[in-house]
Amino acid sequence: MKLKLTCLAALLSCVMFTKAEAGIIGDWTNFIIDDVKDIWNNEHDYDLYIPFYAWHNRLAYDKKHIRRYNEYPWGGGIGISHTNEEDTWSGIYGMAFKDSNSYLETYFGYGRQWNWTAGDEKQWRVGLGYTLGVTQRHEYYYIPVPLPLPIFGLGYRSLNIQGAYIPGVKNDGNVLFLFARINF
Predict the structure, then answer these.
(1) Sequence spans of domains, the chain
(2) Which residue in the list 35, 47, 56, 90 is annotated as catalytic?
(3) Disulfide-capable partner of 131 in 1, 103, 111, 137 (CB 3.0 to 4.6 Å)?
């Protein structure tokens, strides 16, 4: 069953687009590629990622699953990023951590977050955005699976608390994943 779901996810991510959809997707893809090149080739910050909490939505899980799941996904990651003059953060990164079943999970991705700043030197910020990447999990035999997610964050100077919500169905998904991002 898990192999079938993995194959279905891979098939859906390779669906052919009409010419009009390909144009929109192409423009969007080119924007991301250009942003990644800009992060890589120009001045950037180095980031340390520390996953620390994975809250399983109590409205979507029965008590048996909640008792069984790991909610402390300790692990780590690294990345590079930059913030432009409009206070928009972009980064590329990789993380490895313990998943809900205490197995190794990895996520490699690109993220973009629009921030609103406050304070004398714009030290405080809050933001919303997205991350596009691939995850590898034991139940998918560590085959890379695309996983686009919404992200949000709250930051002060170089410390950022960020989160992503993984949507799902009953007893699967529906997880708020929190991590610290420290840039230096």
Answers:
(1) 2-183
(2) 56
(3) 111
